Write a sequence for this structure.
């Protein structure tokens, strides 16, 4: 478990920046060392994507859709306050995992279907089924995949610039470290 200040140091971001992310992404905040490795992995993903110049608006839109999809698939029935990011940091079956929540949906992301109707928790029945209320897991998945594809295209376009910047900055960092010693 991690303390908030330790995560800020690990991510090289100010606590003010991270608390702003928590608020804008509607993440739970804890006191003391109560942040899981998955929570830190999620924040690392967000910070990495922002470093790659992915807009926070795109990330918020994708995050909202991924959480909605997970609710439609009943992945929110674990009782965890961080149910929507508890899969972050896992590396198996990358082709089946959502970009931000890292949740494994059970089929490759390019598939045209998901396994709906799974319910891992007991909850009172709804008066109307989700599709009758306009909620459709396939529709939400397609919307999230559109944003994901746009983000992946932006990453591909930004990556050469990031590599060039890292190559340019490496000698400067070595010079700065020598002067500090």
């Amino acid at each position: 478990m991690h303390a908030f200040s330790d995560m800020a140091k690990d991510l090289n971001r100010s606590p003010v920046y991270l608390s702003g992310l928590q608020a804008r992404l509607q993440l739970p905040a804890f006191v003391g060392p109560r942040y899981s490795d998955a929570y830190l992995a999620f924040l690392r993903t967000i910070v990495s994507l922002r470093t790659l110049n992915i807009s926070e608006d795109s990330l918020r839109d994708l995050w909202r859709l991924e959480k909605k999809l997970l609710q439609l698939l009943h992945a929110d029935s674990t009782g965890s306050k961080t149910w929507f990011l508890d899969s972050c940091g896992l590396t198996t079956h990358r082709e089946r995992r959502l970009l931000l929540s890292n949740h494994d949906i059970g089929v490759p992301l390019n598939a045209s279907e998901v396994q709906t109707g799974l319910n891992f928790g007991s909850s009172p029945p709804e008066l109307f089924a989700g599709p009758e209320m306009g909620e459709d897991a396939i529709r939400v998945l397609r919307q999230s995949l559109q944003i994901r594809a746009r983000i992946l295209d932006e990453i591909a376009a930004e990556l050469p610039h990031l590599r060039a910047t890292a190559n340019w900055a490496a000698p400067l960092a070595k010079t700065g470290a020598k002067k500090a010693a």
Observations:
- The chain is about 50% helix and 0% strand.
- Confidence is low (pLDDT under 50) at residues 116-128.
- The two ends are 33 Å apart (CA to CA).
